[in-house]
Amino acid sequence: MSDPKIIVALDYPDSHSALAMADQLDPNMARVKVGKELFTRAGPDVVRALVSRQFDVFLDLKYHDIPHTVGRACAAAADLGVWMMNVHALGGMAMMQAAREAVGDGDDAPRLIAVTLLTSMDQQTFDLIGLSGTLAENVVKLACLAKDSGLDGVVCSAQEAPVLREELGETFQLVTPGIRPAGSDRGDQHRTMTPAEAVAAGSHYLVIGRPITAAREPMQALQEIEQSLG
User: Fold this and answer.
1) CA-CA distance, 133 to 180, in Å (whole number)?
2) Which residues are catalytic?
């Protein structure tokens, strides 16, 4: 059974554009991510359409609310047949445990991961929020909390992956956005790595958007990135 490492971010404003891109990709070579804009505009139907095309869907809505509300939202996401969903680790242990209980932990259960700190955040931005410590220290603290809450992994920067891999073990999954092939535009991401660097650092899955979706030949771009992983 294939286990594609690349998750293509379908960051589109409408279902037609997202599905048109998906139709250019091979679900055996990549998974896809549905985020806030697309889900808000297109709703659950776009997720169902992607699942019907045999794609594993990462529903990237970063649930963060009281435990009961997050649990109900995660149960609804699981009913859509998603492969993975996420919550904010800053919601705390009770919230993450409620999410875990809602989706179950069997082999068929969706993978449940937590966001630590957004990859668009740098130390200056973090300091302005008024929280103590460094970015790296807080990422480790939040990732440990997620594991202790029964989650399967975290979203993190590839720059933090080596520390998290050492701290949390090989099976705790690290999902890394902010991935940019060599020579590509960083966009609004501050903490980036190339795909090969991220995998070498310990990332399990790589979230990649514009380097694939904005390419003249998206499938060719996907294949080139896959080949770069060795």
Assistant:
1) 28
2) 62
Using the predicted structure, report yes or no on whether residue 181 has a pLDDT greater than 80.
no
DSSP 132-197: -S-HHHHHHHHHHHHHHTT-SEEE--GGGHHHHHHHH-SSSEEEE--B--TTS--TT-SS-B-HHH
Of residues 16, 55, 53, the one with CA closest to residue 33: 55
Q: Using CA atoms, how far apart are residues 201 and 143, in angstroms rounded to an integer?
A: 16
**pTM of the prediction?**
0.92
User: Hey, which of 130-139, 191-200, 218-227 has the most confident mean pLDDT?
Assistant: 218-227
Phi/psi for 118 (5° steps) reads -60, 140
pLDDT tens readout for residues 212-221: 999 999 999 9
**What span, in angstroms and rounded, lies between the C-alpha atoms of 146 and 190?**
24
